[in-house]
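Q: Here's a chain of 180 amino acids. Please give me its 3D structure as tokens.
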Amino acid sequence: MGITSPQFPNENCPHGDCAALSCNPAPGMNDDGEGVDEFTDFMRMLAPPPRGPIPVAAVLGELQFLKIGCATCHVPVLRTGPSAIAALNNVTFHPYSDFLLHDMGALGDGITQGMATGKLMRTAPLWGLRNITTLLHDGRATTVEQAILAHDGQGRKARDRFTRMTSWERGQLMAFLGSL
């Protein structure tokens, strides 16, 4: 995000061009860590978006989602570990993500951070998808179908299975995704 802190003390060069940092309005350490801790607490305690209505087509669409392999990365169910915070202690939740980095081939944005190369991207959670109007990390997709078709690398097989679906199967899948 362009904010340096004790955890990330070095600026990322925009598109690998460190000369562009000469225009940085706030060089040096931007945050002593307190803001990062407060933001972490905010994000940790933020509730997930509620799921929308689940018509029969959405139930059938979830089966399509599993069948074509979307759930390999967009994992439907996760469970938190032990936590001193009761609301977070061993809780089952449904993010439709594994929150891991995957090689997304041509979908990658070229941005590197630490050991994450420009093709590695974190699996975006699909919860709240029905309320999102621009998709993918850079907003290049305006429909769910465009986002699916942009998948590459480790997401290529699921994308290819999607392209072979009948219009009926796609409709079910879209009903499911529209319920998230």
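Q: Can you summarize the key feature?
A: Residues 1-46 form one domain.
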